[in-house]
Amino acid sequence: MRRLIFLLPLVVLAALLVFFLRGLDPSRDPSAIDSPLIGKALPTFSAPALLADKPGIDSRDFADGDLRGKVVAVNFFASWCLPCRAEHPVLKQLTSELGIPVIGIAYKDKKDAAAGFLAEMGNPYLRVGTDEPGRIGIDFGITGVPETFIIDKQGIVRHRIGGPLNPQLIDEEIAPLVRELNK
């Protein structure tokens, strides 16, 4: 019995070691987490407009129902997110090359900080909402920012990209999907 008590910490340590080594595996892709929303209806949400006082910008609050009828990309971003800065020019490419409207949701970000980020980097979004408490992000099941979802005309989530977009992702994954959804 005493021997088992002495072995218990070793067994626990071995289990923790296996767990941590799996997490540090260089071949593991954390962005490859499947979204439970794929193939399901967009979560019900209402996002207050971020840029409500800016002229020339659609300043209405928007909700999930406003995203039906066209293929759209919903992009979660934050001013404090460095990968969001890296992906920002690529978001403009989605609209210019694919003609897909991009809806931005400032996730767990202060309104002033998110508005300053867009003023500095440019605004690639058709509409921008805020999710300061993070509730919309939770409903979408996001694991971090940036994260982008492709939504079909019926409001069904068709694809999730965890992490920053890049031209290769657009060419190989998003463009073929958008072409198929727009048929």
From TrEMBL:
<keyword id="KW-0676">Redox-active center</keyword>
<dbReference type="InterPro" id="IPR050553">
    <property type="entry name" value="Thioredoxin_ResA/DsbE_sf"/>
</dbReference>
<keyword id="KW-1015">Disulfide bond</keyword>
<dbReference type="InterPro" id="IPR036249">
    <property type="entry name" value="Thioredoxin-like_sf"/>
</dbReference>
<comment type="similarity">
    <text>Belongs to the thioredoxin family. DsbE subfamily.</text>
</comment>
<feature type="domain" description="Thioredoxin">
    <location>
        <begin position="36"/>
        <end position="179"/>
    </location>
</feature>
<keyword id="KW-0201">Cytochrome c-type biogenesis</keyword>
<dbReference type="InterPro" id="IPR013766">
    <property type="entry name" value="Thioredoxin_domain"/>
</dbReference>
<dbReference type="InterPro" id="IPR004799">
    <property type="entry name" value="Periplasmic_diS_OxRdtase_DsbE"/>
</dbReference>
<dbReference type="Pfam" id="PF08534">
    <property type="entry name" value="Redoxin"/>
</dbReference>
<protein>
    <submittedName>
        <fullName>DsbE family thiol:disulfide interchange protein</fullName>
    </submittedName>
</protein>
<dbReference type="InterPro" id="IPR013740">
    <property type="entry name" value="Redoxin"/>
</dbReference>
